[in-house]
Amino acid sequence: MHYTRPENVKLRTTLLNRLPEETYDVLVLGGGINGAVSAACLAARGARVALIDRGDFAGFTSQQSSNLAWGGIKYMESYEFGLVEQLCRSRNELMRAYPSTVQEIRFFTTHARTFRHALWKLLLGTFAYWALGRFFTRAPRYLTPAAMAAEEPVVRLDGVDGGVEYSDAYLHDNDARFVWGFLRTALDHGAAAVNYVESLGSRRDGDAWVTDARDVMTGRALTVRSRVIVNACGPFVDALNAGAGVRTRHRHVFSKGIHLIVPKITAHRRVLTFFADDGRLFFVIPMGVRTCVGTTDTRVERPETHVTAEDRRFVLDNINKRLKLERPLTEADVIAERCGVRPLVVESSGEAKSDWLQLSRKHAVEVDRERRHVSIFGGKLTDCLNVGQEVFDLVRSLGVEAPFPARRWYGEAPEARDAFFHQAALMNLDALTSPRSSEKLSTRLWRRYGPESLSMLEAIRRDPREAEVLIEGAEYLRCEIEQAARREMVTRLDDFLRRRSKIALVLRPEEIRAAPGLREACELLFGADADARLAEYFEAPSTPTDPAAVGGAGPSAVA
Question: CA dist 200 to 57, 193, 215, 216, 285, Å?
Answer without folding.
Answer: 18, 17, 11, 11, 39
